[in-house]
């Protein structure tokens, strides 16, 4: 147990860097910023695994050693407890007067009758009474040894065994669980849990490669948000439909409706789908001089959570252009700010998060967006280096309300059509969550048993005697001992003494 306590202290100490330093699993940008701020210290910390503490080999070694130590402590204790459960109570001590609780008395009844009274009072014939054992000493005195409170040790073992189970459940979740976020447009937008490619961000467990996810699909039909007058959100609700793995396997095309809201996730095929937040996706239609049109809507990122003022970039490629160079240099990007409830001024800003009076301030850029470079880029921004190099040039700027448009120098028009809300969903899969819940409850139950139940012992020695008139008289000696330091056994001992001995004896 000493080793387990030392390892537990080391585990807590080893977890401190995970709380004090940025972690790659949580925020890679903060890690990059730390490298910028501390260029000499950061590489050394990185070599030691301090930016990914909970996946570091040395942290796993401490965790594993703690598990082995706990199991090594609990197995002998469990075996010893099993033997103790079958063992008889401890024999009556020779000198009961040395015990913390002791009393002597002489009663006017035969020894056997008094012993029957003791058996009845201790509940020896009841299932949850005192556990008793009787013996006859060489002097002829009869004794009863009694003990209760065995469930205290049971609670102690349940607590520690459940702690091991809890750690195993956490480990299973970290190994085989995953968590991903995805943004889905309302009005029929769909998401399927088929691979990691369907997610905007994905954090797999150590044993998850994303190729064997349990398939299910979600379709977002509508979204509704309620706000207080100051703009604080009161509730988020989304009307969704889903198809489980069984539905997909059977080829069913119907969607099961579900009212998704914050803190009321959809539980489906071992996963949970949470509603995290929402935003807006402005819809633009670009009409080129030859009459061809393209309509695009993509989520814009909120920059002010209080008013949902958003920024983004909706990108287009001109259709029907065969020449690669011409196609690359004729790409369009509609960037800017979107206000769901515009203030109405020259500078577009939002005064309320609900979609009441939408307006967008756009910069239209034409040129090479870098879509063919083979490098990933953010859907919310354009490549600023393209602007700096002159490969992207601003060709128009305007404030637009739904239905309004702006004309470019070559006759191309960009129309702001309307706005589509989007919702942010999080899918969490944790195969160890049921085990964690069960063992957490068992930990509380075990702790409650170990703290509330008192282990105590009680002995009775009965010596037959004869009074002056020949009537049966019996010398009774009782003693008690608490196995723990908890208070309260003194009162119980006095109640036992009052019930067993007719006349109050002298307590020594």
From TrEMBL:
Transmembrane parts of this sequence: 51-75, 157-176, 435-453
Membrane topology: Multi-pass membrane protein
Ranges where the ResB-like domain occurs: 1-494
Subcellular location: Membrane
Keyword terms: Cytochrome c-type biogenesis, Membrane, Transmembrane, Transmembrane helix
Source domain of life: Bacteria
Pfam family, any one: ResB
Name of protein: Cytochrome c biogenesis protein ResB
